[in-house]
Amino acid sequence: MKNNSEKVFLAHIVAASENNVIGANGDMPWHLPNDFKYFKNKTWGMPVIMGRKSYEALKESLPGRINIVITKKTDFHPKDALVFNNIEDAITKAKESDAKEIFIIGGGEIFKQTIDIVSRIYLTRVHATIEGDTYYPEINKNIWKLVSAQSFPADDKNNYPYTFEVWEKNIDAS
Ligand SMILES: NC(=O)c1ccc[n+]([C@@H]2O[C@H](COP(=O)([O-])OP(=O)(O)OC[C@H]3O[C@@H](n4cnc5c(N)ncnc54)[C@H](OP(=O)(O)O)[C@@H]3O)[C@@H](O)[C@H]2O)c1
């Protein structure tokens, strides 16, 4: 267990197009295996919290991570994930682990409800304007500061150029 003086980061990890699309028809509208590797590397061994629709899109829980699903349903009992009926209880459960970081991994509804309480955003910016039906909130640059960015071109496996951005809450703004 962590003692209270140890800081646990609550983070979003998300891939979004230039126009903030994160999903279309229940899926991600691009093929970026390098982003999957990045996601796996960052979240491995950590608790991951997600909305019920994102969990169902995955089809099964993510290996090597504590999977926590949020739903209002009372009859949703997947065998490979913990389930909570609100975001606060899900975060409380995730904090019981020894993880240094807790990841909120989507989707749109959950990102929107938690952007004010996370302190870090791992944003893979997909450099394209894409049609979709699910969006990430606009990052408010008065509140958030870009602390790192690593850009990559499209290639034969990754169909758009992309940048791995890390944003942290700008403490000067509070
Ligand atoms: N690009 C990315 O990085 C990324 C990441 C994740 C997902 N996605 C995409 O995002 C889309 C899914 O996102 P979405 O917004 O439709 O759904 P979602 O956020 O994954 O899940 C929504 C569901 O979560 C539950 N929920 C939401 N708020 C709640 C609350 N306060 N208390 C209790 N339960 C709550 C409800 O489940 P019940 O209806 O069961 O009550 C709700 O229907 C898909 O297209 C997926 O591919 C993209």
Provide a descriptive summary of the structure in words:
An eight-stranded mixed sheet has the order 5-4-3-6-1-7-10-9, sandwiched between helices. A two-stranded antiparallel ribbon has the order 2-8. The protein is globular, with a radius of gyration of 16 Å. The protein has 174 residues and is α/β, with parallel strands linked by helices. Helix content is 20%, strand content 32%. The model has no long low-confidence stretch (mean pLDDT 94). It contains four helices and ten strands; from the N terminus they run ββαβαββαβαββββ. Bound molecules: NADP nicotinamide-adenine-dinucleotide phosphate (NAP). The site of NADP nicotinamide-adenine-dinucleotide phosphate (NAP) has 28 residues, from β1, β2, β3, α2 and α4. NADP nicotinamide-adenine-dinucleotide phosphate is lined by residues 14-15, 22-23, 26-28, 50-54, 57, 70-73, 85-87, 105-110, 113, 134.
Entry keywords:
174 residues, alpha/beta, Dihydrofolate Reductase, subunit A, 8-stranded mixed beta sheet, two-stranded antiparallel ribbon, 4 helices, 20% helix, globular, binds NADP nicotinamide-adenine-dinucleotide phosphate
